[in-house]
């Protein structure tokens, strides 16, 4: 992939004007209050033997998400580790779900607990039961309910992700004061949203090549990936729906969540990424409210970012901030 966005010098200074809707905070306070008012129990069933794993314990977790809907997650912990453990809450990339426990062994191998959160409607274990409340204009999820912030798909998914952090306090053996949120692409955008909404209950955030940031520019210049679902929708409805669509998207833009997030943050970016253009990642990074923020740059990377080279960077960074595990 060639370079198709700003150069690195320009990206470092790229801080586009970005103003959240006047009722942004009220919208999310109301949304999360409504979800929490639904109640619901957090459950965890031990399923280690089913997956023939010897060095980790695996629990099949359900916790209440948006509207109290049960959301699936895996909880993985190093077997025999003395708690309470720091926990890495992991959100998943676009069109994926929590998969299998064997997909997620890195963090437990490094001594962390890991809560892997299913994505409603995208994974197999958490249906989006309220999908019919908003129109879906294209394949995928980007235009599902786009006519209204209240009906938009990501209102439900982001709420699930915040409620996953709520659930940590109810799961034994985890340290609610050492919660790290992370993910790549869509998962990175969701981690940013949680960092902005959950406040000091997040100890660190690791957004890799984050999606859901700087929507207007992303829709205009991305050469691949799901932003094109929005472009396709606007292509056919451009006369009347451009501003209403972006008005909805403003409530879910990672730049606005970044402006409210203060936890130490380690971003990553691929300078040849056609899915999440580098300027959209830097828009969130340069607006990030926390003083401790670092960008890992992969100059010749596409949307895979640093691939297998990125986890060692994350582990070192967490240890430097006292969020590592005992060796």
From TrEMBL:
Residues 1-314 form the Acetyl xylan esterase domain. Pfam families: AXE1 (PF05448). This is Acetylxylan esterase. It comes from Streptomyces exfoliatus. InterPro entries: AB_hydrolase_fold (IPR029058), AXE1_dom (IPR008391), CE7 (IPR039069). It comes from the Bacteria.
């Amino acid at each position: 992939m060639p370079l198709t966005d700003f150069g690195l010098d320009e990206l470092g200074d790229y801080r586009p004007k970005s103003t959240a809707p006047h009722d942004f905070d009220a919208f999310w306070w109301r949304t999360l209050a409504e979800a929490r008012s639904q109640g619901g129990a957090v459950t965890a069933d031990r399923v280690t033997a089913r997956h023939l794993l010897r060095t980790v314990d695996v629990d099949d977790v359900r916790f209440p998400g948006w509207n109290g809907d049960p959301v699936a997650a895996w909880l993985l912990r190093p077997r025999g580790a003395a708690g309470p453990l720091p926990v890495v809450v992991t959100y998943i990339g676009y069109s994926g779900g929590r998969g299998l426990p064997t997909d997620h062994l890195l963090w437990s191998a490094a001594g962390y607990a890991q809560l892997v959160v299913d994505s409603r409607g995208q994974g197999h274990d958490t249906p989006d039961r309220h999908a019919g409340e908003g129109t879906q204009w294209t394949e995928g999820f980007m235009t599902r309910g786009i006519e209204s912030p209240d009906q938009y798909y990501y209102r439900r998914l982001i709420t699930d992700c915040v409620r996953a952090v709520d659930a940590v306090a109810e799961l034994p053996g985890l340290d609610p004061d050492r919660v790290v949120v992370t993910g790549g692409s869509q998962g990175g955008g969701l981690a940013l949203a949680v960092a902005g909404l959950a406040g000091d209950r997040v100890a660190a955030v690791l957004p890799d090549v984050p999606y859901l940031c700087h929507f207007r520019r992303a829709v205009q210049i991305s050469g691949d990936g799901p932003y094109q679902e929005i472009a396709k929708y606007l292509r056919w409805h451009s006369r009347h729906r451009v501003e209403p669509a972006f008005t909805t998207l403003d409530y879910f833009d990672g730049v606005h969540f970044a402006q409210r997030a203060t936890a130490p943050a380690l971003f990553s970016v691929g300078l040849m990424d056609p899915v999440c253009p580098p300027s959209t990642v830097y828009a969130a990074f340069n607006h990030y409210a926390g003083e401790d923020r670092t960008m890992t740059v992969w100059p010749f990377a596409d949307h895979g970012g640093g691939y297998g080279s990125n986890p060692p960077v994350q582990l070192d960074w967490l240890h430097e901030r006292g969020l590592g595990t005992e060796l």
